[in-house]
Amino acid sequence: MGRIIANALHGDLDVVLVRKIGAPDNPEYAIGAVDEDGRIWTDPIVSRLGIDGQYIRDEAARQLKVIKARRVQYTPIHPAIDPQGRIVIVVDDGVATGATLGAALRLLRQQRPARLIAAFAVAPPDTIARLRPLADDLVYLSAPEPFRAVGEFFTDFREVKDDEVLQILRETPPPV
Hints:
Blueprint: H1 2-8, E1 18-23, E2 26-35, E3 40-42, H2 45-49, H3 53-74, E4 87-94, H4 99-109, E5 115-122, H5 125-131, E6 137-142, H6 162-170
């Protein structure tokens, strides 16, 4: 999606690396996220569920290793673009809890883009409300209720594999 949008807008493509921190009993349910700088962001549900802080730190450390490994893979092919002063559109296929998109927006906001926009296909209304203060604008197709999972709104919701990302980055022209 990012490549398609960047092409349509004649913009540059880059990746922002964040990883979900999944719930102890349901790793697909995001209770937080860790960004590339190692900052941990948790959802308020963590305290309501009584999730141990050590679990969060351990899972964040595990996910940060994945982030660092990906950065090592991606950077020789496509060095990171400094977002300062640029219009930045963060693209996500869909958002459930908003943990990873929120972490990406917070990370990028600290790098002072001229404008920060979040673009995604689908999210529940309460998540949209939590994301709204993190971006200058939100662009999305649908905010259905009830909302159970992002995948229910797609006929093909396969995970994008590292080799696909690497191929897209190889084919991406250098930034302007």
